[in-house]
Amino acid sequence: xxxxxxxxxxxxxxxxxxxxxxxxxxxxxxxxxxxxxxxxxxxxxxxxxxxxxxxxxxxxxxxxxxxxxxxxxxxxxxxxxxxxxxxxxxxxxxxxxxxxxxxxxxxxxxxxxxxxxxxxxxxxxxxxxxxxxxxxxxxxxxxxxxxxxxxxxxxxxxxxxxxxxxx
Length: 167
Fold this sequence. Notes:
This protein has a single domain (6-165), classed as Alpha-D-Glucose-1,6-Bisphosphate, Chain A, domain 4 (2-Layer Sandwich). 29% of the residues lie in helices and 34% in strands. The protein has helices spanning 16-24, 26-29, 118-139, 152-165, and strands at 6-12, 34-36, 44-49, 53-63, 67-77, 90-98, 101-109. A seven-stranded antiparallel β-sheet has the order 1-7-6-5-4-3-2, sandwiched between helices. It is globular. The N and C termini lie far apart (42 Å).
């Protein structure tokens, strides 16, 4: 059976080091609405978009210039029946050399067509990987979602997460 997980691939002239560095600079290509560390093994960070989507990630694998994996520890969508669709998904960034260029393959392990958010989420990832991250790598400037003020959903999520983490 064909792989049903979402995959986006880009090919650039920059080095694997430059690609890896850009991936870790999440605020410069995905969203300025990220709180926490995004560069070291075991770093945890929270992403939010308005009151529509909030997610808590942990970096569970980091092989410099080769691979980076984020584990979705907790997720809340406002727009799906299953509010926690992404929970326990993995975001996998794999870097390799191909035809004297650097290839980045992004896979969201768990984002499958059966998910209610698949169309919206895959379109968003295509933009963030193929447009914004690629632009950050090739020009030094990405197209992230701009910073917003924290909202009640985010604040309650963070409070709940902090309380759970301190147990």
